[in-house]
Each structure stands twice: as C-alpha cells, then as structure tokens.
Specification:
Rossmann fold, about 45% helix, 4 domains, alpha/beta, six-stranded antiparallel β-sheet, Beta-Lactamase, single chain, five-stranded parallel β-sheet, Alpha-Beta Plaits, 19 strands, about 550 residues
Length: about 550
Amino acid sequence: MRRALERHGGTVEKFIGDAVVGVFGVPELHEDDALQAVRAAVAMCRQAELLDHELSERLGVRVAVRIGVNTGEVMVSGHGAQVRVNGEMVNVAARLQQTAAPGQIVIGGATRALVSGAVLLEPLAPKQLAGKSTPVPAWLVRDVDPDAGGIQRRMTAPLVAREAELRFLRGNFDHLRDSRMARIVTVYGEPGIGKSRLAHEFLGWAQSYAKVFTGRCPPFSQGVALGPLLGTLAELARGEQVEPGLRAAAEALGDGAVDHTADDVLWAARRLFEVAAAECPLILVLDDMQWAKPLLLAVIGQLAHSLRDVPVMLLCLTRLELLDSRPTWSGGILSAASALLAPLDREAAESLARSQFDVVLLGAGSAENGRAHRLLLQSIAETTRAACVAQACSIQRLDIARREFVFEAVAGQGEDSMIGRRYPSDRGIAGWTLLSRQSIVVDDVSVEPSFAKDVAESTGYVPRSIVAFPLIKDDAPVGVMEVLDYELDEERGIGCLEFVAPFAGQASIVLQLVERDRTVGEAVEADAELRELAALTSAFSALSEEKRQTAVRLLRLIRELM
C-alpha cells in the first residue's frame, strides 16, 4: 500500500490499526494531486486483489480494501515523516471510506470535480455522514484513464494574438523540411497562458506534412524517467518498415522487459526516427517538460545532437521552472530555438472572452451593462430554483442607507410581482442570516423564532421551508439569497445546501455589480456631461473590431492634443 501511494506522489500520514491514511499535495502541491490520489486508490485495490487471490489459495484467507477519497483544505503540522493533517476534509474522507463496500473506492464532490475528465464514475445516493447536517454527494470509481493529465485542456477557443508565435513554429518546421536537419524548439510560458493551445493550432497545420507523436512528463516520480520518450518509440516500432530485430528491442524497452541504459534508448530512438523520417518529417511534442527528470533532459539533448541529418522536430512545452533546474537547457545545440509566451494584452483578452462567453464587455454604469448584470442575476436565481426543485428562489440586495432588503431577482412564486419590493433588513430569516453571516436551513418555519410570517404574507406566498445564504463580497454584506420549499434532487445526488453555495458566491459578485451600476447610473442621470460620456461608451462597445481599433487610435490622438 505504501508503494502504491508513493509511486503516485502521495505520503503515508499514519497507520491506524488496519487503516492507512495517505495525503497528496503535502508538503508540495501539484495540479493533479486529486487525480493521482484516485490512481493510487485504484492501484491499491488491484494490489489487494492479487494478494487476496494468493492468500485464498494458500491459506484460505480473504483480503479486501475499501477506500474513501476527499479533497479540500487541511491543517498541516510537522514535516517529513512526521507530517500530520487534520480538519473536516479528513473526517469526510474517513466517513466516505466507511460507506464503501469491499473493493470499492468512493469519492466526494470536490474530488469528482477535479477528476471527472479522467475517471469513469458512477453517482451514488447522497451519504448521510456522521457530523454532517445534510447528505454528502458521493461517486463510485469504476475506472481511470492511465494517460490523462490532471488538467483537462480545452482546445475549442480561437487562437488570439498569437500570430507571431505561430509563424515562429511554422518557420522552424519549414527550415527543418528544407535542411533535413533535426531541430529542438522550446515554448516557455506560465500555467494556462496557452502553450498547449498554440501547439494544437500549429500541429493542425503541420500534420499535413509530418507524423506527430506526443508525450507528457508527470509532475513527480511516477514511472520510469524516460517514459515520455519510450511511449513514442513503441509507436514508431509498429511501422511497416521497421526491421523485426529493432521492433523487438523497442518493444522490450517500452514494456520494461529488459534493463536498459540511456545509450540503449538513444540507439533505438535514432534508428527508429531514421526509418520513420525516411517517408516524411516527424514532430515529437513533449509537454510539461518542467517536470522532466534529469535523465530525460540529457537524453533529449543528446538525441537532438545525434539526429542532425534527420528531419525531426522536438517540440518542448514547459513552464519557466525548467530553467531553474536546467539553466543551460538546449544551450550549445546549433539547431535549437525558443519562444516565450507573454500574457495577452487587454484588447486581446477581451476578444477571447467575447468568443467564449455570451457577454458584452461595456463601460461601467452603461444601461446595457446594467441590463446584462440583471439578466445574469435572474439566470442565477432560475438555475438555483431548478436545481433544488424549489417553489421559489430570490436574490435580495441590501440597501444600507435605508436599512432594507430589495428583491432584485425572483424565480418561481412571486416572480411577476416581487422585483423592487422592499422590507426591513432586520426582519425574518434573511435578517438573521445577514446579521450572523451564517447560512441556515429551516425545514419547518412554524417552529423557527426568526421567521417573520407577516413579511412572508406580504409577498403572497408563505413557505414551509427556507434555505438562506448571506451574500458577502470583499468582507462586506451585499444581500441574501433564499430558496423556498426545496427538495433534494435525487437524480443529481446533490443536496440543496451544498449545491446552492457556489451560486450564492456568484450572486454576491453580480449583486455588487448591480449596486455599482445603480450608483453610477444615478450619477450619470444627474450630470449632462456624464450622460454624454456614457452614450459614447455604449456606442464604442457596439463597434466592429476594425472600427473599434480606429476609434482607439483617434482617442489616442485626442489625448496627445490635450
């Protein structure tokens, strides 16, 4: 069990009788800790199955494990072998483990959100766990993709403002085709800046002229150091032109059937690349090179030297951390090139946002902006009501000056009459929620002292149950969200309280924007010059991209004249 945990980047926190507590992301955090925890759990179950088979045949003894996996914040004490973790997340993991049958792995909602793209899951009925007031969502692990990364990268967004970098990659490939010489090209960039998206665009063009192979370096010491390269060699070995002896040697390397040295891998790689590149150029993409082992970095550098007369592009995608561990990376290789991806400027970022989301990016306080924010707030209320199978959901803004709640969005009961209605902010469950800054679940309002029946009657609907969330932004109260007469959505397996919490967080943000729109709107109405400026802002936002650029140049000229 310890080996399975450590092989996937985990640490044994402690043994308690026949239980093992493993932690991931302590002391060093990785972006795929949740996925590696699930992989370790699967490996432990499979190891237990082998042990069970052996012991049952030899001694008639049966062995099985059951595992719970949960993700969240913990309190950490100690260091090294003495590290200890405590907190609610640890308790929930233990309770999930207790609900699993022998041989099963049960995971919580936060873990599921992080691994769903790489793990086959089966939803379970929400679990009523000790110490939890509401049922906890849970999923059963059925299988895990051994090759999937921890972050699912989306390649559907358009490539924006990367024309120069794309020309750089295409130019290097054209040089490789013309010279028939290998090139090692490194693209540096911060996480999420678009390295993979740029490579995807380039490969979409290049695959018409070359064969493409890919490899990825895991973020810790899982597997063999040369694993990302050995996988490609195994693919190349299946080519029709490969001699049987070379194919057998490459397959033995990939399977780990024989012990091998770096020289063995270099010999096989050069031979296989030579054979495959005789038909057309090759491109080998190595992602996440910041996590490559020193041996792999050394072999890739030597391979680039040895393939000088073979048309192979080694495209390495990496964060800048690679230069911390290998400051001379690709130095001394004549056919090496590199590029650094800089963050998108504001205009390019807005263009990308428009292509991905149905939003309008306008100046603060414009009428269009206010309408967009109110539509978004209403959408949050409607989605929350539908998800909770509730009779109503309302989002109420706190008017601090008048000490009143104002209904800004209503879905369900009262949606046609309640918008704009007010009542004192110190009344009812909403008032208690805002004062205490605590969410509350009231299953029966008739026995709840803070329930204000007269306020409910004034709305035309008196609920039986209420869930209320305080809406807090920048540590300041901005309002309250209430869900009336909710039910558990059994199909989704998610309790109302746990499902609504993230929507309440979104409502807090949008409600603050609505308040800003209202404040700025009042100022604009009182000032003729501000009204003119708002009109210009609205007109500017509606321009086409070409006209917008012309308008920006004109504004810059005006600024210079001023």
